[in-house]
From TrEMBL:
Gene3D superfamilies: HIT-like. It comes from Phainopepla nitens. Residues 302-312 have a biased composition (Basic and acidic residues). SUPFAM superfamilies: HIT-like. Residues 256-283, 297-324 are annotated as: Disordered. This is CWF19-like protein 1. Residues 442-533 form the Cwf19-like protein C-terminal domain. GO terms for biological process: mRNA splicing, via spliceosome. The gene is Cwf19l1. One of its GO terms (cellular component) is post-mRNA release spliceosomal complex. InterPro entries: Cwf19-like, Cwf19-like_C_dom-1, Cwf19-like_C_dom-2, HIT-like_sf. Belongs to the CWF19 family. GO terms for molecular function: RNA lariat debranching enzyme activator activity.
């Protein structure tokens, strides 16, 4: 069947250099044939454009190709755009407008947003606000069977576009650009997204717009940032491409994934919590990794059964289940050894990890027998939260941030692993990206869940899962449906991207002699004492 193939050109900041850009377009068309249109992102006008522009505005000169431009990015050039809703500026040169969708006769859909992100309210005429973005999203997402747009034009780069992608050179994509543009791109799922303003050329690897194995495959997005026209560094400012409108494409061809496709850089904006299904029984891990012990020199006394000290229990409180066999982690169990416990609360205790990633790798464990965080009663959960806050404050005093993870799979007693990472080694974003990148390599789908959501909202009791929490509050979740690498959390943290100690990924390679372990526990207990609420409560 006949399909309308459109040949388009896109360019970066023209900044009034009309002769340069139109001269280049004429040369390309003379060599390669006619193109349908030129799309201009960034600053079309410069501060000294008036004389050159007058020749086009009066008709003395004419653009060699239908040219579509975005609006002003500063107060200086506002006067060139007389109608905010869009208008013809000169023959063959059209201002698209503040925001909207341009649909050509071929069926190609081009979404556009003019200006830069507003830093104040009300937004100046050369800026866009969250309301502008929301209205543009709503106008498209409300259309029946919306799958995405063919092209998105913005002047600013989307913030974080480089996440999971190839390097953007000297541009720091974590600081550059607009979060609102990222949100727009995440929702509109353009096949091509063009931007400028940074005087740099960056063609990002294509990224997917669906969750692998969880959502129906969708088309990929190609983000291309273009440099300023006629720049002396010879950076690419003009991009030629052919595109068939999405509406005319064979669905299988549209969603075909290229070899170099990456994870979506804006996945954290999607805030999609996984849907739990019927509970599965988790296998038990045959070998036990950690051994703990009640230390006689603990800061206070308590009964060996781990009962609370006279506090009345709420009637509805969940009671810990009884282990089916010997449990290394129930504090009253005779299986417990005796030397790595460093703090005992009313419902929980802390113990150093045997074969820890570092000497201050610690575990938060419930005193009674609970399999996972999801199973905890409210008072146990409350004390877990207190221990997390105390450890955060403690590690920050040491110039570190913690990473917490839980593997509710092939284990029978909840173990919250808490591993400190030096603040100057990496940021919370670096840690999160390392987990997602390694998960991606192993085809493990780690979803970011809202910071203030409870793990119980996304997992039912008995459902196997892996869960990561950063001390910034960010959380990642994987619903385990088959096999799962038991040492995944350790492997990520030990990798070159983070602690750079891959030899410590297996705890069995790190186990110390008992006297050394006992000395580490004494040192931790001494240092942690000022932060240990269990000694004061």
């Amino acid at each position: 069947s006949y399909r309308a193939v459109s040949r388009r050109l896109a360019c970066g900041d023209v900044e009034g250099r009309l002769e340069v850009i139109f001269g280049r377009v004429r040369a390309i068309q003379a060599k390669s044939g006619r193109f349908d249109m030129l799309l201009c992102v960034g600053n079309f006008f410069g501060s000294t454009s008036e004389a050159a522009w007058a020749e086009y505005r009066t008709g003395a000169k004419k653009a060699p190709i239908p040219t579509y431009v975005l609006g002003a990015n500063s107060q200086d050039t506002l006067s060139y755009f007389p109608d905010v809703s869009g208008c013809e500026l000169a023959e063959n040169i059209t201002y698209l407008g503040r925001r909207g969708v341009y649909s050509g006769c071929s069926g190609l859909q081009i979404a556009y947003l003019s200006g830069t992100e507003a830093q104040q309210q009300p937004a100046p005429a050369h800026s866009f606000s969250a309301k502008d973005v929301a209205e543009l999203k709503t106008s498209l997402l409300s259309t029946p069977n919306f799958r995405g747009v063919d092209i998105l034009l913005t002047s600013p780069w989307p913030r974080d576009v480089g996440t999971f992608g190839n390097s953007a050179g000297e541009i720091d994509t974590k600081k550059c650009g607009s979060k609102l543009v990222s949100d727009l791109a995440a929702s509109l799922k353009p096949r091509y997204h063009f931007a400028a303003l940074e005087k740099a050329y960056y063609e990002r690897l294509p990224y997917r717009n669906h969750m692998v194995l969880q959502e129906t495959p969708q088309h990929v997005t190609r983000f291309i940032a273009l440099a300023d026209v006629g720049n002396t560094s010879k950076k690419k400012y003009l991009y030629a491409f052919s595109i068939v409108p999405m509406s005319s494409m064979d669905p299988a061809e549209l969603v075909r994934q290229p070899q170099d496709v990456t994870e979506n850089p804006y996945r954290k904006l999607r805030k999609e919590a996984p849907k739990s299904k019927a509970p599965l029984s988790a296998e038990e891990e045959p070998a036990c990794q950690f051994f703990f012990d009640l230390n006689k020199h603990q800061g206070k006394k308590r009964s060996s059964e781990g009962k609370d000290r006279g506090d009345s229990q709420p009637k509805q409180a969940k009671k810990p289940s009884q282990p089916t066999g010997p449990c290394w982690f129930c504090l009253a169990s005779p299986e417990v050894e005796k030397h790595l416990v460093v703090s005992i609360g009313t419902h929980c205790y802390l113990a150093l990890a045997k074969g820890g990633l570092s000497p201050d790798h610690v575990l938060i464990l419930p005193i009674g027998h609970y399999q996972s965080v999801v199973d905890l009663s409210s008072e146990v959960l409350e004390e877990v939260t207190k221990y997390k806050a105390a450890l955060k404050e403690f590690f920050r005093s040491k110039g570190k941030r913690y990473v917490l993870f839980e593997r509710n799979y092939r284990s029978q007693h909840l173990q919250l692993q808490v591993i400190p990472v030096p603040l100057d080694l990496c940021t919370s974003e670096d840690i999160k990206e390392a987990f997602i990148a390694q998960a991606q390599e192993q085809q493990i789908e780690l979803l970011e869940i809202p910071e203030h959501s409870d793990i119980a909202q996304v997992a039912q009791p008995g459902v196997p899962y892996f869960y990561v929490e950063l001390d910034s509050g960010q959380k990642l979740f994987h619903r385990i449906r088959g096999r799962f690498p038991l040492q995944f959390g350790r492997c990520v943290l030990a990798s070159e991207a983070l602690l750079a100690q891959p030899q410590r990924a297996d705890w069995r390679q790190c186990a110390a002699q008992r006297p050394e372990e006992a000395a580490q526990a004494r040192a931790f207990r001494r240092d942690f004492e000022p932060f240990d609420f269990s000694l004061r409560d």
